[in-house]
Amino acid sequence: MRFDIDPNGAGVRELCLTISPHECECRLVDADGEHVIAAGFGRWIEGTTDMPGVELHHGYRFHDSPVVARAAWMNPDHLKMVWIYPETAFRDTVECYFHQDTVVFSRTVNVNSGPLAQDDLTGKRAAPSR
């Protein structure tokens, strides 16, 4: 599922969710490129990422940061992921709400000296690539 994201303060242009029975790959695209985290259904997946989120993580920018992630369908229109950055105190909760051809991407963090949530990203399903 690929979504064109409405203009936003984070500069995210695209959200792509590649979902299989065993995992969900979450890919955000912004001016710095693609940022990916793979989350397992019913299991944790270990990886590394440079997923942006400086405003949620005390101003830190991650580069090849270890991440452990898990995903679950809360209902057919609500996907929830947990991203744990084990070398830090940060645990992000990401929720995607689907309605017809739109998505709302919501991201919060467990602890921060600033905001505990990013502004929601909204978007529409992108036309299939040819």
Write the layout of secondary structure elements.
Elements (H helix, E strand, L loop, with lengths): L1 E4 L8 E6 L3 E8 L2 E9 L3 E5 L15 E11 L2 E7 L6 E9 L2 E8 L11 E5 L5
Parallel strand pairs: 4-6
Antiparallel strand pairs: 1-2, 1-10, 2-3, 3-4, 5-6, 6-7, 7-8, 8-9, 9-10
Task: Give structural notes.
The chain is mainly beta. It has a single domain (2-124), classed as Lipocalin, CATH 2.40.128. Helices cover 0% and strands 55% of the residues. The protein is built from no helices and 10 strands. The protein has strands at 2-5, 14-19, 23-30, 33-41, 45-49, 65-75, 78-84, 91-99, 102-109, 121-125. It has a 9-stranded mixed β-barrel with strand order 1-2-3-4-6-7-8-9-10. A hairpin with a 2-residue loop joins strand 8 and strand 9. It is globular. The relative contact order is 0.21. The mean pLDDT is 95.
The biggest sheet amounts to:
9 strands, mixed, barrel
What kind of oligomer do you see? single chain
Strands of the largest sheet, in order across it? 1-2-3-4-6-7-8-9-10
Poorly predicted parts: none
Order of helices and strands: EEEEEEEEEE
Radius of gyration: 14 Å
Structural class given helices, strands, pairing?
Answer: mainly beta
Chain-averaged pLDDT? 95
Q: How many domains is the backbone divided into?
A: 1
Strand content: over 45%
Give the distance, in angstroms, between the N- and C-terminal Cα atoms. Answer: 15 Å
CATH superfamily: Calycin beta-barrel core domain
Distinct helical segment count: 0
- Rough shape? globular
CATH topology: Lipocalin
Number of strands: 10
Helix content: under 10%
Classified by CATH, the class is Mainly Beta
**CATH architecture designation:** Beta Barrel
